[in-house]
TrEMBL record:
<dbReference type="InterPro" id="IPR039635">
    <property type="entry name" value="ERMARD"/>
</dbReference>
<dbReference type="InterPro" id="IPR025209">
    <property type="entry name" value="DUF4209"/>
</dbReference>
<feature type="domain" description="DUF4209">
    <location>
        <begin position="131"/>
        <end position="211"/>
    </location>
</feature>
<protein>
    <submittedName>
        <fullName>EMARD protein</fullName>
    </submittedName>
</protein>
<dbReference type="Pfam" id="PF13910">
    <property type="entry name" value="DUF4209"/>
</dbReference>
Length: 667
């Protein structure tokens, strides 16, 4: 592994030149009055005159534009430094309202007064995040689906219609284009050290944001449109994110020592680590995570490039190539189809990769980096619980790559619980993990059925013209036989020949089966295809359960109040009969899902014919559950049809089981 002290920059030579030198080549002083009117408004025409264009195709000449804008940015920076906070608020605060996070921009002004490099970089990351979100809101005045990538957003016709193409070209010089300064990406992906981001660029973006507010106000007055801000993403079920214990000051103090000694930390990035831990201690949780995520990325990039022997990938690539990000580092294969060696270096690849995939990538996870960097989260209310997990994970990585001789803390009484939590981590947001959660939630719902209010049996029997429970009993017997055939695939302590339904189809069994470790890392496409179908089946079962609970409660109330007509009373009797076999039938399906889930990787490795046959079988079960949703809905109440459909499905299941085409037989 490369020595962290030997890395002096993570910016490639052209990118370093563009950010750190190009905008300083023109040393002439620029008069702020040229771009600032007497009432403090931005003179956009004077600003846009500094954007240069290529003669060949009239596209932006980013090199000449950065060089030309350098003195303008310096002038703006000095101008802001000359203002008091009160003057700035009076002059500019109202122009930041359109961003829906005015306070962030006022904080950036405070940062610029002190020019502390780490704080300037943090301020710029927050500014670009909030600006992107606000521009997306403006986009939705004209368009429907807001582009996910900033570069696509800035290049959109919709924003050009509102602000003008020349104005959008100015923004693209600073952010959003890989050909320009690209300040957002080099910071959010961990390429720039604090000293490599000139404060004047942060000042210029603050100035331009105010100017955009002025332009937008004029546009809204002319069009009578109303700018609507999209709601922020709110983290729910925070307990699902709870992987590490609460971090106290003692742990954080040890972490401050670890960052100075861990080979995971590049020396040039050390100020970011210290600032991140300080922010956490100061309860600035969004700041802490914003600072830390890029450092986790650059640290992992160092491991990735070293273990895969591609040291050049540590640097930002040119605009003609992609740079190495989390997505590639967490992939199974490199772009040349060779095996990614990073998991081997991590020693506990499932832990580290599962955690990172959970918190950063999985669509049903918090996707913290995406949502923070694209401005989807309210920075003022960012939860401590989420920050605690990111910082806790970072500490375990620091400890993993610390020198044992210098810093033997892995067995420390404070650090050891963190390391234990890391080694036991299992994915919570992979589709397989979500399926397990779905199954158990559905089972809890079905377990409520015995508590449903029901009319005494003797009253139900008085309804004339209805047959007894013979058909329902037949279905229950068929389910019992199916369970008996499946028992040797289940733990021995759950088997009972006397009452297989109530002794086997239990919540305890499903919990035990779902607790079995199933590989989620690098799941192949066939596995994910199967899981998609299984999740749909589980969801349909849950909906059936909810409909039965609601319908049974309503019909009981109507029975007691004697508001049921004759036909409705007959239908209620059919519902009560159906509930007797539907409960074990739904539990049987959930059992099949969990048993198949344990072996899902094995069946998908079989030959394509077997796999397609299996998928066809699953889709037939899905069709059954979808029909159940229809038949048990309050609009349909087709209970006789439900019984007949269940009988046919059980016959098919038994045939498939006999031919050994079910997953557990293929495994």
């Amino acid at each position: 592994m490369a020595l962290p002290d030997s890395v002096t920059t993570c910016l490639s030579q052209p990118v370093h030149y563009a950010i750190c030198k190009l905008g300083f080549e023109k040393t002439d002083t620029y008069d702020i009055k040229n771009i600032l009117s007497g009432n403090g408004e931005v003179c956009w025409q004077a600003v846009t005159e500094h954007v240069c264009y290529l003669e060949s195709d009239q596209s932006v000449d980013y090199t000449k534009s950065i060089r030309s804008l350098g003195p303008v940015c310096e002038s703006v920076n000095l101008y802001f430094k000359s203002l008091t906070k009160e003057q700035f608020v009076i002059q500019y605060a109202s122009w930041f309202h359109w961003t829906n996070c005015k306070e962030v921009f006022l904080e950036v002004f405070d940062v610029l007064q002190h020019t502390e490099a780490t704080e300037v970089a943090l301020g710029l990351m927050k500014l670009t995040s909030c600006l992107e979100r606000a521009l997306g809101d403006v986009y939705l005045l004209k368009g429907n689906d807001c582009p996910f990538l900033l570069r696509d957003l800035l290049a959109s016709e919709q924003l050009a219609d509102v602000f003008g193409q020349a104005v959008m070209n100015i923004l693209r010089v600073f952010i959003g284009s890989p050909h320009g300064l690209n300040l957002r990406n080099v910071l959010w992906h961990g390429f720039a050290s604090p000293q490599e981001i000139p404060a004047k660029y942060c000042a210029m973006l603050l100035f331009l944001t105010a100017g955009l507010g002025q332009l937008l106000q004029t546009y809204l007055l002319q069009t009578k449109d109303v700018l609507v801000h999209r709601p922020y993403v709110i983290f729910i079920s925070l307990e699902e994110l709870d992987a590490f214990p609460d971090l106290n000051n003692e742990i954080l103090s040890i972490a401050e020592e670890l960052v100075k000694l861990s080979s995971f930390v590049l020396k040039i990035m050390l100020p970011f680590w210290i600032a991140a831990l300080t922010a956490f201690k100061q309860s600035r949780y969004a700041d802490s995570v914003i600072l830390l995520l890029p450092q986790l990325e650059v640290g992992l990039r160092l491991l990735f490039t070293t273990s895969n022997r591609c040291p050049n990938r540590l640097l930002t690539a040119e605009s003609s190539a992609l740079y190495t990000t989390f997505d590639e580092m967490l992939a199974k294969h490199l772009d040349n189809e060779e095996i990614n060696q990073l998991p081997v270096v991590l020693e506990e690849p499932a832990m580290a990769s599962d955690f990172l995939w959970d918190f950063l990538n999985h669509q049903e996870g918090p996707r913290i980096r995406d949502r923070l960097s694209h401005g989807e989260i309210n920075l003022e209310t960012f939860p401590r619980e989420v920050a605690n997990q990111i910082v806790g994970f970072a500490i375990t990585i620091l400890c993993r790559f610390s020198d044992e001789d210098k810093f033997s803390l892995k067995e420390h009484m404070v650090i050891k619980p963190l390391m234990n939590c890391a080694s036991c981590y299992r994915s919570r947001f992979h589709p397989i993990s979500r399926l397990k959660k779905q199954v158990l939630e559905c089972m809890k719902s079905i377990h409520l059925w015995p508590e449903l209010p029901t009319v005494p049996e003797e009253q139900v029997q008085q309804i004339k013209g209805l047959e007894g429970n013979a058909e329902a009993d037949t279905l229950i017997l068929m389910i019992s036989e199916m369970i008996s055939q499946l028992q040797h695939y289940m733990p021995q302590n759950c088997c009972s020949s006397d009452d297989p339904i109530n002794s086997v189809l239990t919540e305890r069994l499903l919990v035990e089966l779902c607790d079995a470790r199933v590989c989620t890392l690098y799941s192949p496409r066939p596995v994910l295809e199967v899981v998609v179908v299984l999740r749909r089946i589980s969801a349909q079962c849950h909906q059936v359960s909810q409909q039965v609970i609601a319908g049974a409660g309503l019909r009981y109330t109507q029975w007691v109040n004697k508001t049921l007509r004759s036909r409705q009373r007959h239908n209620y009797r059919r519902m009560l009969n159906s509930i007797k076999f539907l409960s074990p039938m739904l539990r049987l399906i959930l059992l099949l899902i969990t048993l198949e889930l344990v072996s899902v990787h094995s069946v998908c490795k079989k030959n394509p014919f077997d796999y397609q046959q299996y998928l066809k079988f699953l889709k037939s079960v899905l069709q059954y559950t979808e029909n159940l949703v229809t038949y048990t809905s309050p609009e349909k109440n087709k209970w006789d049809e439900t019984m007949e459909l269940t009988k046919k499905t059980l016959i098919n299941l038994r045939k498939i089981n006999d031919r050994k085409l079910m997953l557990m037989h293929l495994a």
